[in-house]
Specification:
498 residues; mainly alpha; Sodium/glucose cotransporter; two-stranded antiparallel ribbon; 21 helices; 2 strands; 75% helix; globular
Length: 498
């Protein structure tokens, strides 16, 4: 009961902050980019909270449970992406658009913006949706099963949508300073207590060596192709993460946008490494627990994704467990807020304002976006039935965004020769490749024979989905650009520094 009381108290505190901040929203700039006045320490916190979501709390934990320390290849893809982002953060803030698709329109054309918007809407609804799914599992654990995951998912969806509707980006950056702090503190404190609950470091290592020794190796028993497949989605998503670009535009100046990226790098590396270690200890703790394994002895992937929260609820002292569970609530809420916010911003600016409400007043734009948040939240909830695990949803959505948007976005900042047609064709090719793979996976999911197409077997393991999608997108970008006329200097000079 004390766990639930602590989490409810923490959520009510965040709700109070959001209600208070909602009174400061006067314009679309306030709602979408927090008035472009966010200081560096708040920007660092909200960037870390953007990335550390249910995909980390559940997906990273589940991947660690079944592969061990080699999970870090999945996380490291994002770490490399952050360092690449560092080189363009100041330029993004200087151009000062609202969304990533604004950048695509500025470098390419309106069709690139529309295709980018469609890609983001589809993928981000999946990402927002698995925050609901993760929240449902979280509430089921917190209530010790008295609330089902399905009912919990409805409660989580209502909470996340409500937070986002209240004050938009102002609310998000205001509560994320608390969320980021409790997230880091909880992970730092949890690890030694989790190790102690299993008898110390030596006992943990001995159990893993006896049960699954490959969990302690860098490759986890996999080959190099698996490493590429598992690292690419996070790398590509980080490079084309629209919410991060939107938050760069919230910075109070260009220099602070770059400083915040380095702060984000340190925070994300620290939190994700701690999460991996906690989940690895969890594997040792629950190595003989039948709840985590199927009848054939293989790991129950959905159950494995709950490992960190199970440790908090079942293995830690009440105070430490309460802190970890409050951090779990922070992770789910902060990431759900962000992805609903970004998706609704894209729909509002790139579709509704562009084609239907061209003359809407600033106050009207805010209310239009609030309605969008509610509708998108409902659609995200309805999409949940298509996936079994949060990691599967993460890999599919990460690849959808990354393969479609990362190549043309990076080309905009680093390759003068990329043409408008090349950028548009790359977005379309990446998006269609992922959609085709998803459809074929769905069709042949229960098939005994499957399908072999061009040497690729379906259903395809989502660990590898990013490889063909990226190959198609980059090839299309390069070939289409080289076959069309060179762009004029005015197309690229604002994006590429001398």
């Amino acid at each position: 009961m004390i766990y639930a009381a602590v989490v409810v108290a923490y959520v009510l505190m965040l709700l109070g902050i959001s209600v208070y901040k909602s009174r400061t929203v006067k314009s679309a700039d306030d709602f979408m980019v927090a008035g472009r006045s966010v200081p560096v320490y708040m920007l660092v916190a909200t960037l870390v909270c953007t990335w550390i979501g249910s995909g980390s709390l559940f997906g990273t934990a589940g991947l660690t449970f079944r592969t061990g320390v080699s999970e870090l290849w999945f996380s490291a893809g994002a770490w490399v992406g952050i360092l690449v982002i560092y080189s363009i953060a100041a330029r993004v803030r200087r151009i000062a658009q609202y969304t990533l698709t604004d950048l695509l329109e500025k470098r390419y054309n309106q069709l690139a913006k529309v295709l980018g918007t469609i890609t983001i809407i589809i993928a981000y609804m999946v990402i927002a949706g698995y925050q609901f799914k993760g929240g449902g599992r979280f509430i089921a654990i917190l209530s010790d099963g008295s609330i089902s995951p399905e009912t919990g998912m409805i409660i989580a969806a209502l909470l996340i949508v409500g937070f986002t509707v209240l004050a938009g980006m102002v609310s998000i950056v205001s509560i994320d300073i608390f969320n980021g702090s409790i997230m880091l503190l909880a992970m730092v404190v949890t690890l030694p207590f989790a190790i102690s609950s299993h008898g110390g470091v030596d006992a943990v290592i001995t159990t893993i060596q006896q049960t699954e020794p490959s969990h302690l190796s860098a490759m986890g028993g996999h080959d190099f192709i698996w490493v590429i497949g598992i690292a690419l989605p996070t790398f590509l998503l980080l490079l084309s993460e629209s919410s991060i670009y939107q938050k760069f535009s919230s910075a109070d100046n260009e220099q602070n946008a770059r400083k915040a990226v380095m702060g984000m790098f340190i925070g994300v590396v620290l939190v994700e490494t701690l999460m991996m270690l906690i989940a690895l200890v969890g594997f040792a703790i629950y190595a003989d627990d039948p709840r985590f394994f199927l009848a054939d002895g293989s790991i129950d992937r959905a159950m494995a994704e709950e490992i960190i929260l199970r440790i908090g609820f079942e293995q830690l002292p009440v105070v430490i467990g309460s802190l970890l569970l409050a951090a779990g609530a922070a992770i789910v809420i902060s990431t759900g807020n962000t992805f609903l916010m970004v998706t609704s911003t894209n729909v509002t600016r790139d579709i509704l304002q562009a084609f239907l409400f061209k003359d809407a007043a600033p106050a009207q734009v805010v209310w239009i976006q609030r309605v969008c948040i509610v509708v998108i939240g409902l659609l995200a909830y309805l999409m949940m039935s298509q996936f079994d695990t949060i990691l599967e949803m993460a890999l599919m959505s990460y690849t959808m965004i990354g393969a479609s948007l990362a190549p043309p976005l990076l080309a905009a900042f680093f390759w003068k020769r990329v043409t408008r047609f090349g950028g548009v064709a790359s977005i379309a090719a990446g998006m269609l490749t992922v959609i085709v793979i998803a459809v074929l996976n769905s069709i042949y999911k229960e098939s005994a024979e499957g399908l072999n197409l061009l040497g690729i077997s379906f259903p395809m393991d989502t660990d590898y989905i990013a490889i063909p999608a990226l190959i198609v997108s980059v090839t299309t970008l390069v070939v289409a650009s080289l076959l069309t006329a060179k762009p004029v200097k005015g197309d690229w000079e604002e994006f590429i520094e001398a």
